[in-house]
Every structure is written in structure tokens, then in C-alpha cells.
Automatic annotation (TrEMBL):
Signal peptide: none
A Pfam match: Hydrolase_6
UniProt-recorded name of the protein: Haloacid dehalogenase-like hydrolase domain-containing 5
Gene3D superfamilies: HAD superfamily/HAD-like
Family matches, as NCBIfam families: CECR5, HAD-SF-IIA
Amino acid sequence: MAALSGLAALRAGRRLWKLPARPSAGLPGCWLRRGYIVGRAESPPTFGLLFDIDGVLVRGHRVIPAALEAFGKLINSQGQLRVPVVFVTNAGNILQHSKAQELSDLLGYKVDPDQVILSHSPMKLFAQYHNKRMLVSGQGPLVENARALGFQNVVTTDELRTAFPELDMVDLERRPKTTLRPRNDFPAIEGVLLLGEPVRWETSLQLIMDVLLSNGNPGTGQVTAPYPHLPVLASNMDLLWMAEAKMPRFGHGTFLLCLEAIYRKVTGKELKYEGLMGKPSILTYKYAEDVMRQQAERRGWSAPVRKLYAIGDNPVSDVYGANLFNQHLQMAKRGEEERETGGRQKRQPSTIQSCVSILVCTGIHNSQDPGSEGAQLLFHGHRDFSFSPELLEASHIVHDVDEAVQLVFRQEGWA
């Protein structure tokens, strides 16, 4: 129902009226759409939009009405986007093309899979691990997602517990009823992929720890825990996220927090990551920039994208990430050394000069007064990201995504 109503509403919002070519009007051959004047041949856009999804465009499986209004302004009379748009979500328990189809149904226009960046999408850049045997944790189409990222040799936590059922001891109903013969035919695991929060946290936490402490051979037992441990790649650091419930829900960042605390308590050492992806990681924004540039090239837009507007509802991931990336861009302008962000593939030189953060009040941040300072924000970010209070302050706070798009158009002289 949400998809049908969204499509109908958007179609209604796309009604066009041809204006008579009156010299006094100064608008020959133009179209009027919902208060915006759009020429037949707009100049190529020099800005792009990064949309978070949950809490900005949708709440759970329901589209937020303001999203339909916003895309009514972003779509031209041919049903094409007027500016580059990339959807950057910290979700990861769905296939890229499935997320694109879900957005298409809700927003009423065709979203290409290449426009969608999931939390783990930048793992495509970590080619040095693609041929290693990796334990993958999360839910949804885990194996399909891992293979789409380039990992060809993966084993799921379910497959691991099937091979070694004696490792999963929390659930009494799943404990082995007989003594099992030890296995020595299970290939060693060479790394860990954390794609998103799993369903059975206790099982996943136990088996991941078993793999790390045994150096990839959980069936042989632990003598001395190796350190550094096997490589770990993780995506989605959100402590909380917003769905249909009135209060935020635990995200994958909460699962990571549990894993890190357990590892530190057991070994006395810190769990280390070879790569952390998803907002607020700079790597994710660099990846989004590449995706946006490819989109502009396909559309034949000749002008390079100079400014990004990142629209989100979570101060700790969306705002912090956009501001952190903007800080990175300003440092690069001054010629300061760039911090290593993982991956080994070369990128084209960046054309982006700034990234503007816009916070909406329809998700995690739900202030009744968008202009107020609000309560002091606690930093819920990941421990590997140093806390800078000023990075939590959005460049703009608006009520919803429609107001955000109107703000961008005014800033860029498109309104």
C-alpha cells in the first residue's frame, strides 16, 4: 500500500502546465512544477545529493510523505533526476539491487542499483582479502552480498556451528546430545567479515571469538591467543537506528561494542580492524564521490561536481560523517597529508571542494524546534573515531527532506 500510494502521489506531483510564451513573462518554452520554474535545457549541475534512507526517506517500510514532495522537485518531465543523487545507507542486510527496487517502489521513480551504497559496499576496494577464506556474520543474503563485494571463499556462522556444534552452547535445545568426533577436514579461516547485526548475537559473538582466539582453527582449541589477530573488516557502526518503533533500535555498532568489550576482557588487548566502512567513515564518502561522478558521466553532465549535500537524521553518523569528510577535503586543499582510509585501488583525482551536512527531524533527531540548540548530544560514535564536538553540529537543521531539498535549491540558485 505504501508503494502504491507513494507512486500515485508522486505522479500527481508531476503534473505540468505549459506557460504561454509571453514576452512580458520572460519565460518562453518553460514549465511550471509545484512552484519551481524549470527550463528545457538546464545548465549541468555542479552539486550532488547524498541521501540517508532510514529516518529520512522511510520509517521501516513506510515512505515519509516529505520524501515524495522532495523527489517531485528532483525529477524532470522525462522522469529523470535533475541532479546527481546517491543513496548512502548504513543498512547491509539486503542486496544492492533489492534495495534499489524497494526505493523505486516507495519513491515512484526508477532507482538504479548503482545509485545505492550499502554500508559494506566499499569492501569492494579491499581486493587483498577477496581470495581469502572469510567468516561472514550478519543476516539476509550474506553469501550473495559477500560474493557481490568480491569475496569468493566465505563461510557463514551457521555453517561454522554446523561443522562444530559443540561451540554453540548457550541454547540448551541446540547442544549436541552425543559426543562428537573431532573434525580435521575443515579449512582454516583467514579473516572475518562483519556485514551487519546478526539475529543470534550470543552465537555470533562466541564463534567470532573462537575464530580469532584459535587463529582460524576453532576445532583445534586455543593455546595462546595470537596477536595481531586475523584481519577483521566491519561495516555499519551505528549504535542506534530508527524504524517504526517510537524509540531507536540497536544497530550493528552495538554488536561491535559487545565484540570489542569481550575481546578486550578475554585477551587484555584491543580488537583491531583492517577496515571500518559505512558512515561516518571517510572511505564511504570517497566511494560515494566515485559513484556520483560515474552517474554524472552517464548522464552526459560535463560540469564536475564541486559540492555535496549530505542529508541525514543521525547526528553521529550522517552529520559527523559529512563534517568529517568536509574537514578532510579542506585539509587536502591545504596540501596536508591524507590519512590512510583502507583499500588499495587507485582513485581519480577528487573534484569535490566541500560537503555540507543537513540534519532532518524525522528520524533519530526529532527536535520539535529545528532552530533550537536542543540537549547536549552524547557521542555514540565508534571508539576508533576521535570525538570532535564541532563535527556533531549540522550546517543546517530542517524539519524534513523536502525542506532540505528546497534549501539546497536556494543555496545553488535553482529555486
